[in-house]
Design brief:
Largest sheet: 16 strands, antiparallel, barrel
Order of helices and strands: HEEEEEEEHEEEEHEEEEHEEE
CATH topology: Porin
Strand order of the largest sheet: 1-2-3-4-7-8-9-10-11-12-13-14-15-16-17-18
Radius of gyration: 22 Å
Distance between the termini: 22 Å
Shape: globular
Strand content: over 45%
Number of strands: 18
Length: 450
């Protein structure tokens, strides 16, 4: 661990100690009865995550601008956050999230559509840099249906509400805070690291280069159903750190969730759809222009205001007291360039998790998953002609094939709030290129959260 990374962890540990010293005592109810744990008016949380990854050299007869390096490589990213929230009035919560980031993911977050480090932002830097990533208001309106307790969490004060309710979030946040959640595969700080596992790879959700955007989301809970919708700002150009001024480019997202009981345990099925409205280039147009000019196809040269559609399925299902399974599948049109996330037009991912209760370590977990990603024929032709995507582009693609990834990890509970995870990923046909790879990536993640 570098000196800079060590300093970041020292700062985070100091913040953790301060947070413990300033912990908000559980308040009393207005009628004098003691409130339930989680009924607090404010909270301060801190977290720090250090990811160290290494891949040995692999078969690489050629590589391009956006290739995963064929020679051996070691990379390290670290981030730390201080997260503060308070309850200004009944049903409302206001949250702020200030992050510090440092380091680079392998090959500077390039070379695989299912990229190997979900903690690796597209904006790497040798020195730590600070950025406010979230600031939002969340308002809950009780609609009846009986009382329900909500557990306190990293950006949730917890407390009591009703089973039927409307939750509105306005401000800057990540769409993944609201949609496409999965208890087994959604959090690169605690579970899988691969981009195509922590979220549906084909869901090109509105975001800046760090994964956050401004807008509004609403969630309506009615019995066993939840209906979600969001209106979010796009970045000014694809894969940019700057959001569009005045919501001139935007995305609409809708998700329907059904909670059901299989194996005597409650699981969830979610259907998500998105519509992106922005300046995007078609692969066919870029190829046609390149043939006329004798150049390399570039979607930036053929952008027009268009609509891009996509949909996904997300299932999570506990099958025992200490384990469960998940499945995701996604699709988009495949005609237009990727705008925000990664170069995937269709994807299927499945896996499972077992916690350590079976061997006497209830806070440990072991998981394994398989994901297969693909792109459209037009997308293949664009990359074959030398075009570059958001994350991929080997300069040629004579023999395309599906990008297949297997990831497995063991998360070891060191002390309360701190986990050390050993992670392994195998990438077959990275960037859809059967001429390169397979690549083996070994990782070590240290995460603390209080």
């Amino acid at each position: 661990m570098s000196k800079r990374v060590a300093r970041s962890w020292i700062i985070a540990l100091v913040l953790m100690a301060a947070r413990g010293a300033l912990a908000d005592p559980t308040p009393a109810d207005p009628d004098g009865d003691a409130a339930k744990p989680g009924d607090r008016n404010w909270a301060i949380h801190v977290q720090a995550t250090d990811v160290l990854q290494y891949h040995p050299s692999f078969n690489s007869p050629y590589q391009g601008t956006n290739s995963l390096k064929g020679t051996q490589e070691t990379a390290n990213t670290v981030d730390a956050s201080i997260i503060a929230g308070f309850r200004p009035w009944k049903g409302a919560q206001i949250w702020f999230d200030e992050d510090v980031n440092q380091g680079f993911a392998p090959s500077n977050t390039l070379g695989a559509a299912g990229f190997v480090n979900g903690e690796g932002a597209k904006v790497g830097h040798h020195s730590p840099y600070y950025r406010p990533q979230r600031y939002f208001l969340r308002q809950t309106f009780d609609l009846g249906g009986g009382e329900q307790a909500v557990d306190a969490d990293l950006m949730e004060l917890g407390g009591r509400t009703t089973k039927d309710r409307l939750v509105v979030t306005v401000g800057k946040f990540s769409l993944t805070d609201v949609m496409d959640d999965n208890q087994y595969a959604h959090d690169p700080k605690n579970d899988f690291l691969n981009w195509a596992l922590i979220d549906t790879g084909s869901w090109d959700y509105a975001a800046d280069a760090w994964g956050f955007s401004e807008g509004a989301a609403a969630e309506l809970y009615e019995g066993a159903w939840t209906f979600r919708g969001a209106f979010m700002d796009l970045s000014d150009i694809p894969n940019s750190p700057v959001l569009t001024h005045g919501f001139k480019q935007f995305q609409l997202d809708q998700e329907i969730e059904r909670r059901q009981s299989w194996f005597g345990r409650e699981g969830k099925i979610k259907l998500l759809g998105f519509a992106t409205r922005g300046e995007m280039g078609r692969f066919d147009d870029a190829i046609a222009l390149a043939e006329q000019t004798g150049g390399v196809p570039d979607t930036a040269l053929v952008r027009h205001y268009r609509t891009r559609l996509g949909a996904s399925l997300n299932i999570e299902q506990p099958v025992s007291d200490d384990g469960g399974l998940f499945l995701r599948a996604g699709w988009d049109q495949g005609q237009y360039e990727t705008y925000e996330y990664t170069d995937i037009d269709r994807t299927v991912a499945a896996g499972g998790q077992i916690n350590g209760a079976r061997w006497g370590r209830k806070d440990d977990a072991v998981s394994v998953a398989l994901v297969v990603d693909g792109i459209s024929k037009a997308h293949e032709a664009y990359l074959a002609a030398g075009g570059l995507g958001v994350l991929v582009g080997d300069g040629r693609l004579p023999h395309p094939g599906a990008e297949t990834i297997v990831e497995a990890y063991y998360s070891l509970a060191v002390i309360k709030g701190v986990h050390l995870t050993l992670d392994s990923q195998t990438l077959v046909n990275p960037a859809y290129n059967t001429d390169r790879g397979p690549a083996e990536v070994i990782g070590l993640r240290l995460h603390g959260q209080y």
